[in-house]
Design a protein that fits this description.
The structure is a single chain. By secondary structure, the chain is mainly alpha-helical. About 65% of the residues lie in helices and about 5% in strands. A hairpin with a 7-residue loop joins strand 3 and strand 4. Helix 1 runs antiparallel to helix 5. The radius of gyration is 17 Å and the shape is globular. The two termini are about 15 Å apart.
């Protein structure tokens, strides 16, 4: 849900216009930053199963970055980073909300997650494996909703609005062809 996570930063920016974009993006992608770091270190895995690599045929094991128990820590870390940088309580809450929203979005539209590790209860839809078009449609719907909230009652040109709607509402479907 790459673009869906980015889209949530638009709503957060609307709520906290002075919060730095970089902090919004780090907060929204913190667990993916952790995952790619852990994959690079060999702690977690994300590998294609054969044929042409795609989201639907990747084997993933993301215990420390995406499972429920670690998510508590990632949400708190997002808040701690925001506090360390800004000392603003509202920014802390927004950073924590973005981190948690990432995880909740992945439960609906992403790979399967667990409580803590593959031997624990499975949670989420695992739509990336089971129904990739539905996962991408959910992501596009989130993107359209976030763009609507971000641009509502603001002076964006029709061209800028069309670009935002296209990026967040149509671009997710590119993953069906790559």
């Amino acid at each position: 849900m790459i673009l869906g996570h980015a889209a949530t930063t638009l709503v957060a920016k609307r709520v906290t216009p002075t919060m730095p974009w970089w902090l919004l993006i780090v907060s929204a992608f913190l667990i993916d930053i952790a995952m790619f770091t852990f994959v690079g270190l060999g702690i977690e895995t994300m590998e294609p199963t054969g044929g042409r690599p795609s989201m639907a045929n990747a084997i993933t094991e993301m215990t420390f970055s995406h499972d429920l128990i670690p998510q508590i820590g990632w949400t708190l870390l997002a808040g701690a980073i925001a506090f360390a940088v800004t000392r603003r309580r509202l920014f802390v809450l927004v950073a924590m909300a973005l981190s948690l929203a990432h995880w909740l979005g992945d439960l609906v539209s992403g790979y399967g997650h667990h409580i803590f590790g593959p031997d624990t209860h499975s949670i989420g839809t695992d739509w990336y494996h089971l129904n990739l078009p539905a996962a991408l449609a959910f992501e596009a719907a989130i993107g359209i909703f976030c763009v609507f909230i971000f641009t509502r009652n603001r002076s964006f040109s029709p061209r800028a609005q069309a670009g935002l709607y296209g990026l967040f509402g149509i671009a997710p479907f590119v993953f069906l062809i790559i």
